[in-house]
Inverse folding.
């Protein structure tokens, strides 16, 4: 096997494993942590691309070559959709942070936005939680750490609709004790059959029957992802109520 | 403590493959003898902390006329309060030759004098999904120390209600000796709420993990 093919396999395997890593589940015990009033919201790194995925792509059934062909097709679709979504002005990180701030404030928390340092933002895409949390002013009682682990449109099969999909691990960490007070994987879109998650139903009015209609309707598609971000933000705020 | 391994979880799902069709389950519930009229006549099994119990609602299980309707049930005495703890309930789906069904659990918490202190269901518990099962959890905190008994039962199925979800049926073609899915069709499927099935109840002291020390 050539080094190139081996490298491709390693990259594909690493991407799938990263997307499928389980998130420890911890329900928030509001009463035990009534002192938490001020939350530092860590800016989620913007995803480098908006994915287009076909979960059961027939190519996966044809060994390595079929898998590579499927990966190439989905990569090309992802690249095209990313361009169109960005043209439509989609910045999902910004949308999510705004939605989270709004929803958390509605729940009664004071929210401090902690922007990611540019050097950090320039690093490879972060899909997991931070291990150390930056200082914030005023001093927060807890940090809300959210990351994108896949945002875009996903179809189960080539002939089934593409629906808005947003995977977001989220956790709340006590600023003093570093205890994880809340932790879950929020999935807006088709629930994962294996991973334990908090499911958020996507709005089916933003489904697209074909990839072509997704591209031609990119403004509506971007709106669908904004709506998904808002639904996920509402769920996080409800979980922390 | 009785521990629940993933293997046991898988076993429960496999066992539930021999599910009784929904209409038979409803008949079993209808015919079931109501054990008692009042909560103080029920036998409560003592729980420890931590603890885990597997509960199967079957035709021989005790039944009671709850406010929400007749249901099979399981009843326990909570451990003495020594600090906050977490109560988690796992409801397993079952899919046999008949309909796919799942329990729609409801939890009653009673004080020592058998007065209802809290009612927990999907509207006020945190709900998660995992491999087809529904996980709901809540806490017993200092302010809930009056909670003394816990009763698990189900919300009756009215008008064939359930959880509707999309299912994808693959279109397959044989190529030589290999069967290859080339596409799929999307349709809706309802997992009906049923009176019989398997629940797991777990109690564990509330102790959040520290960053970097999570279990996985």
């Amino acid at each position: 096997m050539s080094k190139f093919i081996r490298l491709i396999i390693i990259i594909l395997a690493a991407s799938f494993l990263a997307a499928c890593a389980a998130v420890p589940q911890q329900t928030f015990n509001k009463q035990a942590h009534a002192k938490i009033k001020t939350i530092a919201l860590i800016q989620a790194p913007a995803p480098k691309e908006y994915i287009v995925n076909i979960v059961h792509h027939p190519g996966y059934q044809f060994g390595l070559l079929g898998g590579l062909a499927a990966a190439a097709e989905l990569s090309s679709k992802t690249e095209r959709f990313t361009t169109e979504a960005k043209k439509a002005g989609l910045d999902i990180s910004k949308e999510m942070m705004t939605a989270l701030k709004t929803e958390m404030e509605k729940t009664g928390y004071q929210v401090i936005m902690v922007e990611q340092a540019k050097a950090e933002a320039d690093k490879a895409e972060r899909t997991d939680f931070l291990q150390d949390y930056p200082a914030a002013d005023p001093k927060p009682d807890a940090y809300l750490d959210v990351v994108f682990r896949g945002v875009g449109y996903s179809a189960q099969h080539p002939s089934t609709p593409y629906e808005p999909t947003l995977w977001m691990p989220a956790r709340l960490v006590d600023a003093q004790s570093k205890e994880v007070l809340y932790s879950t994987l929020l999935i807006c879109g088709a629930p994962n059959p294996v991973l334990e998650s908090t499911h958020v139903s996507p709005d089916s009015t933003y489904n697209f029957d074909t990839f072509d209609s997704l591209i031609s309707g990119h403004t509506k598609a971007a709106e669908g992802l904004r709506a998904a971000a808002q639904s996920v933000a509402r769920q996080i705020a409800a979980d922390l109520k | 403590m009785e521990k629940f391994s993933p293997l046991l979880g898988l076993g429960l799902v496999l066992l539930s493959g021999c599910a009784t069709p929904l209409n038979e389950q409803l008949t079993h519930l209808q015919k079931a003898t109501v054990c008692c009229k009042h909560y103080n006549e029920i036998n409560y099994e003592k729980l420890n902390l931590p603890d885990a119990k597997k509960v199967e609602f079957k035709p021989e299980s005790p039944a009671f006329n709850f406010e929400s309707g007749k249901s099979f049930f399981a009843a326990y005495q909570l451990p003495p309060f020594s600090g906050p703890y977490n109560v988690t309930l796992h409801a397993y789906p079952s899919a046999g030759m008949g309909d796919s069904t799942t329990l729609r659990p409801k939890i009653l918490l009673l004080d020592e004098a058998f007065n209802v202190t809290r009612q927990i269901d999907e509207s006020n518990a945190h709900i998660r999904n995992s491999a087809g099962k529904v996980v709901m959890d809540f806490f017993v905190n200092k302010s809930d120390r009056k909670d003394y008994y816990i009763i698990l039962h189900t919300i009756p199925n009215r008008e064939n209600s359930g959880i509707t979800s999309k299912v994808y049926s693959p279109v397959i073609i044989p190529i030589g000796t290999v069967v290859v899915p080339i596409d799929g069709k999307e349709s809706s499927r309802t997992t009906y709420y049923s009176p019989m099935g398997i629940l797991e109840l777990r109690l564990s002291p509330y102790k959040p993990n520290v960053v970097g020390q999570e279990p996985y």
